[in-house]
């Protein structure tokens, strides 16, 4: 057919219109505005920390040595050869930090209790009264400021004596030790704490402690790591098995002896990547299902349904530990809510029908490999950590996965945050603002689609000790000077404070209020930059 000039012009303009429409739609989605009013009125907005990462005071007031106190003394284990002996000195500065959170406008604070501060010698020793006093003061002062305590009992750190005497989480003895610790916490704090997390990220503890050997007690085997001892194919399964049973036993104690008077809610938290197929092939789509089972359902299937995911049983066979009939009964329905720590999304490649390096072809990995790149192109904007990319759609997808698999059980996003690619201008953290805006918008879409999500916690309220990365990576809304420990609000503080006040702009007032101080640091510069967001 012959095309004349007018027709060509029309087709050209029509093509431009289509391209413009597509890019406009994409840009609109990326720039989607999110407001506090998009969430339920009783929604919890808070920030998270953990004891070892912020408290410091590692031997003050009767605290014993933890596994991380011991581990960080081994040369080369931590990126900057630093430790949490001082950390953010939250133990001595908790009143200042509560005021920062209050000024920010958060209505919840998720923190963990140091096992070694409460029971330095485990069950064989006595309760440290000064540890109880500290957490009582922390809880009481939070409540006085209208901030809900959201308490994690075990967040990676445990008394070193339990590693040396009992063998850590590889030993069934740790189950009773944990139940004893949890019972002390329920008895001491449960009259004021309404939200309990038994264990934070047991899936990641099993992975980093017993598969990769990067966390204490640093056990692994090739090809996953070069440790002096360990078995990466089996020990992660054993450690996870003991943690899950310990969780169920602690919940049984709470519901039997404490719930009638305290009326609290109890759950468990998993680290939850979202996954997408590397190739548009059935084998990679099947690998995505396995990745979700091995990463997310490994934690939640047992505590909801009483047993491990069928996908794991299929891959592991008899190597996967089995729960007794009594243990299944304890596990089934042993949570009131699901906690999701979500940071990023990765591609998944099948390793059943194609070769994979680095252990991807082994059952412990689910016969799959994960990557953040497809044909050299990242799945999202890279951040300061190799496996963390900015993929906002992953938030909506992971929440929908949990909603569908667990019949829309109540959920909390218990951690979400990012570390920047470069820390040269950490105070002007525009990328962190964009991260939280986009992930909150994605979460709001999931809630509009019916997901029963009841809270969102930023990781973290302030820069802290980021495990094996030490202080080289910063996730906080507040900058912490490593020499003076002074807290300085980043640009994101002004944005988050404004968001929580449901304002459409961020100005000097929000930043000044959220600083908790009458400082003149850099507010005149920050307010101009915030206004551009």
Descriptive account of the structure:
With 533 residues, the protein is an alpha/beta fold. Helix content is 43%, strand content 14%. It contains 18 helices and 17 strands. Strands 1-2-3-4-5-7-14-15 form an eight-stranded parallel barrel, surrounded by six helices. Strands 6-8-9 form a three-stranded mixed β-sheet. α9 (202-211) runs antiparallel to α10 and α14 packs parallel to α15.
- Compute the CA-based radius of gyration: 24 Å
Strand order of the largest sheet: 1-2-3-4-5-7-14-15
How many angstroms does the end-to-end distance come to? 51 Å
Put simply, the count of helices is: 18
Strand content: 5-15%
- Low-confidence runs of at least 5 consecutive residues: 1-30, 504-508, 517-531
Overall helicity: 40-55%
Tally the beta strands.
17
* General shape: globular
Biggest sheet character: 8 strands, parallel, barrel
Average pLDDT = 91
- Structural class label: alpha/beta
Strand-helix topology:
Layout lengths: L4 H26 L13 E5 L2 H4 L12 H5 L18 H15 L3 E5 L2 H4 L10 H16 L3 E7 L5 H7 L6 H17 L5 E6 L1 H10 L23 H28 L2 E7 L2 E4 L4 H24 L4 H7 L8 H7 L5 E5 L3 E6 L17 E4 L1 E2 L2 E2 L2 E2 L6 E2 L2 H13 L5 E6 L13 H19 L4 E7 L18 E3 L6 E3 L1 H10 L7 H8 L7 H9 L2
Parallel strand pairs: 1-2, 1-15, 2-3, 3-4, 4-5, 5-7, 6-8, 7-14, 14-15
Antiparallel strand pairs: 8-9, 10-11, 12-13, 16-17
What would you say about this model in short?
The protein is built from 18 helices and 17 strands.
Key features of this structure:
GH; 17 strands; eight-stranded parallel beta barrel; alpha/beta; GH_1_N_CS
């Amino acid at each position: 057919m012959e095309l004349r000039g007018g027709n060509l012009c029309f087709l050209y303009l029509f093509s431009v219109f289509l391209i413009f429409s597509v890019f406009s739609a994409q840009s609109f989605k990326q720039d989607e505005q999110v407001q506090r009013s998009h969430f339920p009125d009783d929604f919890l907005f808070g920030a998270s920390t953990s004891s070892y990462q912020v408290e410091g005071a590692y031997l003050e007031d009767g605290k014993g040595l933890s596994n991380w106190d011991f581990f960080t003394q081994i040369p080369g284990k931590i990126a900057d050869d630093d430790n949490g002996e001082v950390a953010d000195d939250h133990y001595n500065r908790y009143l200042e930090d509560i005021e920062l959170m209050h000024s920010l406008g958060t209505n919840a604070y998720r923190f963990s209790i140091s096992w070694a501060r409460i029971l330095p010698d485990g069950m064989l020793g006595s309760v440290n009264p000064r540890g109880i006093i500290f957490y009582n003061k922390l809880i009481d002062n939070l409540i006085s400021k209208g901030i809900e305590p959201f308490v994690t009992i075990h967040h990676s750190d445990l008394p070193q004596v339990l590693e040396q005497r009992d063998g850590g989480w590889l030993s069934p003895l740790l189950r009773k030790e944990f139940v004893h610790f949890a019972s002390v916490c329920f008895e001491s704090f449960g009259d004021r704490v309404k939200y309990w997390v038994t264990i934070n990220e047991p899936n990641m503890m099993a992975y980093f402690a017993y598969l990769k050997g990067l966390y204490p007690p640093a056990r692994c085997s090739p090809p996953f790591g070069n440790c002096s001892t360990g078995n990466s194919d089996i020990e992660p399964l054993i450690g996870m098995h003991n943690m899950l049973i310990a969780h169920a036993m602690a919940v049984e104690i709470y519901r039997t002896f404490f719930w009638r008077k305290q009326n609290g809610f109890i759950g468990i938290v998993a680290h939850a990547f979202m996954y997408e197929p590397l190739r548009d092939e059935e084998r990679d789509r099947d690998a995505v299902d396995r990745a979700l089972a091995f990463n997310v359902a490994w934690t939640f299937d047992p505590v909801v349904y009483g047993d491990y995911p069928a996908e794991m049983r299929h891959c592991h066979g008899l190597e996967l530990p089995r729960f007794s009939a009594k243990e299944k009964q304890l596990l089934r329905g042993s949570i009131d809510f699901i906690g999701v720590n979500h940071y990023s999304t990765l591609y998944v490649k099948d390793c059943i029908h194609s070769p994979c390096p680095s252990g991807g072809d082994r059952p412990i990995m689910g016969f799959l490999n994960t990557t953040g790149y497809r044909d050299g192109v990242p799945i999202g904007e890279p951040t300061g950590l190799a496996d963390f990319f900015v993929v906002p759609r992953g938030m909506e997808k992971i929440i929908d996965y949990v909603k569908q698999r667990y019949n829309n059980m109540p959920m909390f996003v218990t951690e979400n945050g990012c570390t920047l690619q470069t820390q040269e201008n950490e105070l002007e953290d525009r990328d962190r603002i964009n991260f939280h805006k986009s992930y909150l918008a994605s979460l709001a879409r999931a809630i509009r689609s019916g997901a029963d999500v009841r809270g969102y916690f930023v990781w973290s309220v302030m820069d802290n000790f980021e495990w094996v990365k030490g202080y080289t990576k910063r996730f906080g809304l507040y900058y912490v000077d490593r020499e003076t420990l002074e807290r300085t609000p980043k640009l994101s503080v002004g944005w988050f404070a404004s968001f929580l006040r449901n304002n459409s702009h961020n100005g000097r007032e929000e930043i000044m209020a959220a600083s908790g101080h009458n400082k003149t640091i850099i507010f005149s510069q920050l307010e101009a930059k915030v206004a551009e967001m």
